[in-house]
Amino acid sequence: MVSVSTSLPHMAKMRTDFLVFGQPLLGEEEIAEVVDSLRSGWIGTGPKVQRFERMLEEYVGVEHVRCLSSCTAALMLGLLALGVGEGDEVIVPTMSFAASASAILHTGATPVLVDSEPITGLMDLDATEAAITERTKAVMPVHLSGRPVDMERVNSIRDRYSIAVIEDAAHAIGSEWRDRKIGSHGNLTAFSFYATKNITTAEGGALATPDADVAERIERLSLHGLSAGAWRRYSDAGFKHYEVVEPGYKFNMTDLHAAIGIHQLPRLDGWIQAREDQWVRYDELLLGLPVESPSAPEPGTRHARHLYQVLIAPGAARSRDEMLDFFTAHGIGAGVHYRAIHLHEHYRQRFAFEQSAFPVAEDMSDRTLSLPLGPNLAERDQDDIVEALRLGLSGYDL
Questions:
Q1: Higher pLDDT, 105 or 241
Q2: Which strand (E) or helix (H) includes residue 55?
Q3: How far apart are CA 308 and CA 285, in angstroms?
Q4: pTM
Q5: In Å, how far are 49, 185, 249, 338, 372 from 369, measured between CA atoms?
Q6: Which residues are catalytic?
Q7: Domains of the chain
Q8: Residue 371 pairs with which residues in a beta bridge?
Q9: Cα 92 to Cα 142, 147, 153, 187, 227, distances in angstroms
Q10: What is the pLDDT of residues 245-298, one digit of tens each?
Q11: Furthest CA-CA distance within the chain
Q12: What residues does 166 pair with on adjacent strands?
């Protein structure tokens, strides 16, 4: 590491306020809607969840959406609705959040990990096709950072091998492949509305499907396997008895959460444009620094710009982890998306993955760094981020 003995005078005071990574932008309309739910007395799953579901169906262009407590819940219930279980295999990229694989394990199936493409970081579809066996029940493409996977190729694999597809679109609400929104390509698709996502419900997710029977089963499984949801049982139409049709879970979204999403969704397209503007500005500001900026979106697609990820160049004065500490010391939050699934303790021990099993994902795991991005990020914030990155990678000490 290069060491510079004299720190710049302003370095320790680059920011007096800490820049939170992924901080949501919440307005007075969201606050008023939540208060309205509190005052109504209906704070569980009810009319606002149904309203948010209809809004999502119209936005995505899909017949059915069911809102849930998280994207992880959506993935797990979606897999169960596809009949995935003990003895089955589901192919998933190792460069993803651990929830992608955990949802598979919770069904009793086995995650089969594959590497990433070097340029985009997305699931390597050649490796995916090579990994298909007679036990393969489904494929789980991950639209990492909001960059859409090639859905023509994915659906071609689906049809050729007669396997199911469940898309992990935790980062990809608003993304498009060939002018069609992710979630409208004929598969089950899981979305996330966690606090750091492009739109939020604080905690929450959704599953999109073209199949009415699947949607009905997802709704049932999300609330204990009951034949009638809470809203239908306790509305002003009068009490209705229910039956437990099958053992279910407690994965429902509440009206308190949907109240936020109802006002976030109409702002999504404008916020994606703001993210794109910041993305372009980052590209310009980072020229000449020892980092690899993300590649441009593929023609005919829309990138949701959820994450702006750089790769720290080999030989830079600070490693990625050292840069994380440097950012924190300067009042800047950053992220890592992700350490590959097979590098985590549980998966190393359970499946005995070799260190070099997935070289592209392993290289990304060591070097990837997500910079703050979002509609509440000011140009002054971007300037501070890039200046800290420049200083840190040049070897300046605090």
A1: 105
A2: helix 47-60
A3: 13
A4: 0.94
A5: 35, 31, 36, 9, 10
A6: 197
A7: 11-23+268-394 (3.90.1150.10), 28-267 (3.40.640.10)
A8: 308
A9: 8, 16, 15, 15, 32
A10: 899 999 999 999 999 999 999 999 999 999 999 999 999 999 999 999 999 999
A11: 76
A12: 188
